[in-house]
Input
Amino acid sequence: MMKRYIFGTPILDTESVIHKPEPQQGDIPYFGCEKGETGVKFQYTMEKDKPVYGLGENVRGINKRGFRYVSFCGNSSMHTESLERMYCAHNFLIVDGETRFGVFVDSPGRVVFDIGFVNPDEFIITSELTDFEFYIIEGNSLREIVRSFREIIGQSYIPPRWAFGYQQCRWGYESSNEIREVVAKMKESGIPLDSVGLDLEYLDNYKDFTINPKDYADFADLSKELKEQGVRLVPIIDAGVKIEEGYNVYEEGVEKGYFFKDKDGNDFVGAVWPGRCHFPDFLRPEVREWFGNHYKYLTDMGIEGFWNDMNEPTLFFTERGLKEAMSVVDELRDSQLDIPRRRRLLQAVNGMANNLKDYQSIYHQIDGKMVSHDKVHNLYGYNMTRSAVEAVDKILPNHRILMTSRSSCVGMHRYAGTWQGDNYAWWSHILFNLKLMPSLNMCGFLYTGADLGGFHTDTSEDLLIRWLQLAVFTPLMRNHSAFNTRRQEPYLFQKKDIMRDVIRIRYMMIPYLYGEFVRCALESDMLFRPLAFDYEGDEVAAQIEDQMMVGDALMIAPVYTQNARGRYVYLPEDMMMVRLSSPEHREYVQMEKGHHYISAELHEMIFFLRTEKMIPLAEPGLNTDSMDFDRIELLCNVKEQGSCTVYVDDGFARDYENPAYYTTIQTVRKDGRLSVEQNGKKLSLVITDCQNQKL
Ligand code: GLC
Output
């Protein structure tokens, strides 16, 4: 059951929900509701110890209970537990218990979720806007509630298959020759690679849709040359447009009046990487069309993937903030910097970035009205990315592209994926990466992953290995780091062979991951599910946040502790443990429901295959283009009988439901041996019967 309530007169349709039920009148179920001049407050008394799930990209655990979270997209440079908000605003949650329901706050402005923080049993939602929509979603199971929600917000973005390959990125690849070198060294070391992310260096002075004329002068050749080797370039695009006479994007935007304004109607000025910038008013369709069409500059050079950044939007400073900070600096220059003065100084300087006063001083034009940005802030990243996708879909029809965005709200999941922002080379961030997966999946973001190895600070060999082992399963598998950190391309490490084998394991898993991904997108399911979503009623499973169901057939339990040579794992049912150190070196151990300590040396990773399940695997290649996905190894954990569906398309097609892409496979055990029957697209099959291959 889906119930929709409208409060006041929303400024605009956020387009988060595209299949809207008729609005309800009367009281909202479950919540007490208080409407005030400055917002609306909802209150619910939670059942003791019962979890609350959701909120997409936000800090802390899978069970969100016990903290306060804010939805107001921010450039969150340090992902600590006390942060309260990250880059995205994903306002969907499920309250679990005897009474169980989902709630979605469809507001483009700031919303605060106090989930038992001030008072342990009180769940309080405060919307700072008085005009917004509110949904209650009922269902029998957690998965069913998610499904109902996902059905109203529309089908998740499906990237091309090559986007499931390994991606190497770094802020600091200074020239096209350096990119060539990275690609060559990956190849020399036998490490698969599907794409290289290009950060700011490829741009001419940080200007969108330009090319660095000195160091990347041969960009088009580079793109062509690498694609011939099965490697694609994925350039970054930032939200801010540099103010510079003669720069086409800037001049067109000014001339057409497409940038957002200050209160006097002048183009608003804020600083990002290029220094002072204007910002496209992406909430206007004509602006989206204009900016999106500029991506053609890059698609014409063979580019098929992008990452959209700084689109919260981040503002390093504005004239107002700078002036205020400078005057405090001047005033305090010669003073004794005692505690209060020092604090004032730091606040003035640090407070320049992403200041609410600045967001309040920006204006959008919505239906002929001037609306201050803070009221629609959370829609910015979403609409920047939508601008890109709407345009590129026309430029390259019938061709799926890779698109990710740092900032988003619900709705953007139909257009693109999201990477999890500027994390650290911390062991705790491996676990955080894992915990974000199901929360993001609940909100429709299936294509996601974190900066592997850690973006900030120096990584270490063991950290990167363990992180890659988790990332074997995350749809986005991208190693990315900041310019001032230790280089972290796998071939640079002593144990590069371990990294190579982990990445090869990922390529082996692509048929399963990609097929399950497409299924989850089409069926509004979650690829990553906490155990509680599959084993309802199992009290132990309900508390586990470091193991996860991935797709229909697997459970994963990554090692994320430094120096650990294994870990404790809880099996909610009998499963087959698969321990591997490479695609070719695997061990199968039948295990019983319950608690186990499982050893996994640094070069080993583990996953668990459920009973009566099978997964399709491929022979890994150096990139996805060179692999034969019609030749499948079926890894079977079948005692009596099992069935599975294998999905093989060309990696680009959009007619996902075309029966030509599906093979249904049934296996039955007779006299100890498995007999196999295929229906649909014929595949060349090799069967691995792990029941009979225990070592
Ligand atoms: C932002 C992005 C990061 C990127 C950097 C420079 O911090 O999150 O991924 O490398 O900007 O473009």
